[in-house]
Structure to design on (464 residues):
């Protein structure tokens, strides 16, 4: 593995964006040096990556690879660079939950769910995404399989067994439709790595989102990544976990679950903005250098089990919390239907398609994603800019901050309360800033004494 890596970036290819945010107003340093911890390698393409989670079953009426492929150009045009597909594999039937079962009850790691189409259809989806300059990662469930998985019949010793010698669900869970795998078995480990390598080698996937990654031994992931990078040195690994050691050699990014829990708590009045500051300070000391989080206000788990963004943040508040989440740091995630104002909990084990309507928030999310792609201050983790919280006089309700590096910068000013707030800045950032949403300048809006923010009012400015 590479250590002490120095990345020399050419000027970022600028991507056109909706006015009043012309691409020409984004600047990028000619030379960006980023140190990462020994053993962790970041491929160049992830430095400003954004991610879209596609729920294949629910994304279209057909729920197929081919139908999703027809929507890829729209998704790419939003500023998405990584397409994450929820598990594509056949779903087990034994102990199945609901009528269609859980994606995460995998029957065969080397096949595709026939409800989605064929392997040829999947290959065509990957090729189209690549044509549109998106990388594709697939969800990988390494901790468990379905009870009727192809492995279960011939390799019972690959599983954790109960006192009677039978397959069992992961201990301490209610996952009754899946059987726990035994990572003490080296033969099983090798088969798992071979299965992952198959999708990288034969189908060109660019990495994996790894389900409950902390339930699987870290040394397995490190061995796995060594093998995968011999096939494609530029793969991206995303952990559904927050364990710092996973970043030492294996995972480039991990979930920001705690971030989501904090902002959910702020919205309910159970947390404060001080908790956000404390979380950021703790992340700075616990994450290995170069690693970063994926941040989100919703995903498939949160939507199905804990409420929609409207239910958790409010009809007006969900946009304010999204503006905060997409500019604070880390990689931003959009979930299937979020750009359409998805306001129902999608059934997890049944067909329950997204109601797209007029894509009423697509422009909002596109502006934020494009800003993340084009403005170096918002690049992921150590690739991005320094953070400075700005004093407003209403810091218990308003979260305002500047991020900057070299000649680029952004300023976010967000009222996270349902009441008007009067603010006044002690120190304004140098330079001219313009709002990505309405084109007004920072000085014109907040540069002349006290100002009022309406409930859940938000502004995101970029340096011109």
């Amino acid at each position: 593995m590479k250590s002490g890596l120095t990345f020399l970036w050419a000027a970022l290819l600028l991507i056109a964006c909706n006015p009043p945010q012309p691409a020409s107003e984004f600047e990028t340093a000619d030379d960006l040096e980023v140190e990462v911890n020994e053993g962790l390698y970041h491929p160049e393409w992830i430095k400003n990556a954004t991610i879209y989670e596609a729920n294949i079953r629910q994304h279209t009426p057909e729920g197929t690879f081919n139908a999703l492929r027809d929507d890829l150009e729209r998704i790419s045009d939003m500023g998405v660079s990584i397409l994450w597909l929820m598990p594509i594999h056949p779903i087990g039937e034994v102990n199945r939950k609901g009528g269609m079962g859980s994606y995460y009850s995998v029957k065969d790691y080397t096949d595709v769910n026939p409800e989605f189409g064929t392997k040829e259809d999947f290959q065509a989806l990957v090729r189209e995404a690549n044509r549109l300059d998106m990388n594709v990662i697939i969800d990988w469930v390494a901790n468990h399989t379905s009870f009727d998985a192809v492995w279960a019949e011939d390799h019972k010793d690959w599983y954790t067994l109960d006192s009677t010698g039978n397959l069992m669900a992961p201990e301490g869970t209610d996952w009754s439709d899946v059987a726990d795998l035994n990572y003490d078995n080296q033969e099983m480990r090798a088969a798992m790595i071979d299965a992952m390598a198959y999708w990288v080698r034969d189908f060109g996937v660019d990495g994996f989102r790894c389900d409950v990654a902390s339930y699987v031994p870290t040394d397995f992931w490190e061995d796995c990544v060594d093998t995968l990078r011999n096939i494609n040195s530029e793969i991206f690994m995303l952990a559904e976990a927050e364990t710092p050691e996973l970043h030492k050699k294996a995972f480039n990014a991990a979930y920001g679950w705690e971030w989501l829990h904090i902002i959910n708590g702020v919205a309910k009045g159970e947390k404060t903005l001080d908790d956000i500051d404390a979380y950021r300070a703790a992340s700075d000391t616990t994450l290995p250098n170069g690693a970063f989080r994926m941040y989100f206000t919703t995903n498939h788990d949160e939507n199905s089990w804990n409420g929609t963004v409207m239910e958790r943040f409010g009809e007006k508040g969900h946009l304010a919390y999204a503006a905060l989440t997409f500019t604070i740091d880390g990689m931003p995630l959009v979930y299937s239907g979020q750009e359409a104002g998805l306001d129902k909990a999608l059934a997890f084990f049944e067909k329950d398609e997204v109601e797209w309507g007029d894509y009423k928030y697509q422009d909002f999310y596109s502006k934020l994603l494009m800003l993340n792609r084009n403005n170096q201050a918002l690049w992921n983790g150590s690739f991005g800019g320094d953070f400075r919280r700005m004093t407003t006089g209403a810091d218990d309700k308003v979260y305002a901050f500047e991020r900057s590096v070299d000649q680029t910068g952004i300023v976010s000013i967000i009222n996270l309360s349902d009441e008007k707030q009067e603010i006044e800045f002690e120190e304004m950032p140098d330079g001219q800033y313009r709002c990505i949403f309405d084109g007004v300048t920072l000085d014109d809006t907040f540069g002349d004494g006290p100002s009022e923010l309406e409930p859940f009012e938000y502004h995101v400015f970029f340096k011109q």
Remarks:
- DSSP finds 14 helices and 17 strands in the chain.
- The mean pLDDT is 91.
